[in-house]
Design a protein that fits this description.
It comes from Russula earlei. The protein is 35% helix and 32% strand. The chain is built from seven helices and eight strands, in the order ββαααβββαβαββαα. Helix 4 packs across helix 5.
Length: 196
């Protein structure tokens, strides 16, 4: 069943979507922002492995389409690990022609709300290379905070880049939306300082 944001449709991945994802992830610029391995062609086998890793785990592996034209916009995933701790990892990649239009923020905000509200996760994490200023701005705008930084983790284009891990907790999301949480938690959140 597809989901809708204001301007997009998020629908589950289907085997016939492989070509769309291969075109997306074989763009060298997108690949260098999305992965820490070598920039090299992604093959059908990679798509099958990714899809099969999501088959038996709760969450969402999907494609994003423009609501007005049904044009392919990008790919998203929510992966929940462990029923006990309810941790979730998040990923998003958009075709370059959709960058800078606010679509990434819209989709990220919707998926975070879905993960906390419908999937009952406790925390959502993501990792991004430190040179991906556009993605970092989106995640921070939605409410993710830097949790840790692995210094000089990835070699790319003649330099070493940090890998940044960001997180948002369910109670932080509640505070952003004005949902009442205990005064103690709210006080802690309001005086929390960013990591050094």
């Amino acid at each position: 069943m597809p989901f809708e944001t204001e301007r997009t449709i998020l629908r589950p991945f289907q085997p016939g979507d492989s070509e769309l994802l291969l075109n997306l992830y074989n763009d060298p610029e997108i690949q260098s922002l999305a992965f820490t391995d070598y920039v090299a062609p992604k093959l059908e086998k990679w798509i099958k492995e990714m899809a099969s890793s999501h088959e038996n785990s709760p969450g969402f592996l999907g494609l994003v389409e423009d609501k007005a034209t049904r044009a392919f916009v990008g790919h998203v995933s929510l992966t929940i690990s462990g029923a006990k701790n309810r941790n979730c990892s998040f990923g998003i990649a958009l075709k370059r022609e959709w960058w800078g239009k606010g679509i990434g923020t819209e989709i990220t905000r919707w998926l975070v709300n879905h993960a906390f509200g419908k999937l009952a996760v406790h925390r959502i994490t993501l990792k991004v290379l430190a040179n991906n200023d556009r993605a970092l701005a989106v995640y921070k705008r939605v409410g993710f905070v830097e949790e840790c930084r692995v210094r000089k983790y990835n070699w790319d284009d003649g330099k070493r880049l940090d890998l940044v891990s960001l997180v948002i907790l369910d109670e932080e999301w509640d505070v952003q939306r004005g949902v009442k949480v205990s005064h103690k938690i709210e006080a802690q959140l309001l005086r929390a300082e960013p990591p050094l």
